């Protein structure tokens, strides 16, 4: 059963703006990334989503395909972004079945709550490997196709359908520092730096590289794990959590004609939350009391 457009895409976008294009997305079975891809498919793109769980990834691909009649969406499971060879095989299949890759979302990520005292070296490395190394591997595996797309669909002020675009999914933890999120903060700082370097090195070849940073998004796995028992919107200037539609809209903005001259930037879609005083979930987790009381969450990796 198809999901109503209003749940994953605003009405301002014109149908067909991504006709003939292909998007490749790691972490595509997740709540946020699947909405991003669903929006692109609704607007004309075909897609390949990547994940580790075969059943979940394939089921999500079938669901996303309902966004547009005739859409082609591949779901490839058993892909570990920490292993570039698995990504390269997924790219080969995407090119064979869909004809190429024009847009990439590097969205695979891992996270949990842990103080440094309970954060093992292995747990810290695991998040770096998934988020930072995984983003780099995604770039490396797809870069040849992005270069081809950029050459075929040149980034000019008059071309409404450019190609060769990549978005890295990040977070805001490293802007100010965040208790219990040292591993994720360090990993995402690396992702932001990676995107900036890609923009400089490959901008001359027509590729744009940007970061999209979601804030707390309602109904996601991340909020279920990390949000604690705090009321929805607590601490956010807009007094609410975001929706997956708002992240999908940001994706369309960056990949479409509207974002052609946006390169090397970080688009934060969080309602201004990162500027507000930090909190980590419920009242009993208010800073710094929970640290002084040694209410620790041990890493289990």
TrEMBL record:
Annotated keywords: NADP, Oxidoreductase
Gene Ontology biological-process entries: fatty acid catabolic process
GO CC terms: peroxisome
Name recorded for this polypeptide: 2,4-dienoyl-CoA reductase [(3E)-enoyl-CoA-producing]
A molecular function (GO) term: 2,4-dienoyl-CoA reductase (NADPH) activity
CDD domains cross-referenced by the UniProt entry: TER_DECR_SDR_a
Known catalytic reactions: a (2E,4Z)-dienoyl-CoA + NADPH + H(+) = a 4,5-saturated-(3E)-enoyl-CoA + NADP(+); a (2E,4E)-dienoyl-CoA + NADPH + H(+) = a 4,5-saturated-(3E)-enoyl-CoA + NADP(+)
Its EC number(s): 1.3.1.124
Pfam families per the UniProt record, alphabetical: adh_short_C2
